[in-house]
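Q: How would the structure tokens look for this protein?
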Amino acid sequence: MPSTRDIRRRIKSVKSTAQITKAMQLVAAAKMKKAQDQAANGRSYSELMNKILVSLKDNAEEGAHPYFSEGAGNKTLVVVIASDKGLCGALNTNLIKKLINTNLEGEVDYVTIGRKAAQALTRLRKTLIADFPIKDPAKFPEVHAVGKFIQERFLMGDYKKVLVAFNNFVNTVTQVPSVEQILPVNPVTLGGKRSFEEGVKDVVASDIPDYTFEPSASVVFATVLPQYVNGTMYQMVLEARASEHSSRMVAMKNATDNAKQMLKDLSLEYNKLRQAAITNELLEITTAKMALE
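A: Here is the predicted structure in token form.
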């Protein structure tokens, strides 16, 4: 049975831990708001651009652009976007589980964004060909380097398709691990609740606007499609960062609440032991007095 001194030490330790988790919760909450706003502001543009390009892909002439058809390679490239730091609940673990359970045919190479992704894939003995450290908050030029790398490898014929595994931000308590195809151009769901895949599947030829390209369709595609890949990749990183800060804020709030409950339990146990010690002392005094009479 622990002594009152041991319990006092535990109470002091738990109080210190609660102060740390509370501070981390406040920091994560401040970063979360900025990350959520940044992710939400870019969704409309990314989704509309994706919808238009998917429609054009289904109605473009064969060979209109390499991004509209599978690459010449027989391997798959997967970009995994995770966090650099821990203490964000099961966010990274759920993403890796989703990736493992995804049926990926043939050989698979991996590109990582975030130290936790690189560590997890190394432990799993996966083929890691590149790692891109991106600071927080994410800047477009840094993400542009990732987009340029995967496009070059796709155009060189190394891979038949490129997938991105990331945490799709829905709200503060819900982040959905997702694996989306970015090359060839494919319907992408951003935000967890926003999906137009069914609408794209139901589109018929008469519903597609008769686009006029100047100077030509090939020139327009050559300009727009690389920007689409870079923009979509950037939006996915923003979704992942919003998910990270939201998950960390919730995890630290739960840790703070658990520490407070532990303090209550320890205080109750301390008071019981202290009361028992006082009662024993009174009994000893009473017994000694009765023995002297």
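The domain at 42-248 is CATH 3.40.1380.10 (Pyruvate Kinase; Chain: A, domain 1).

DSSP finds six helices and five strands in the chain.

Upvote if useful.
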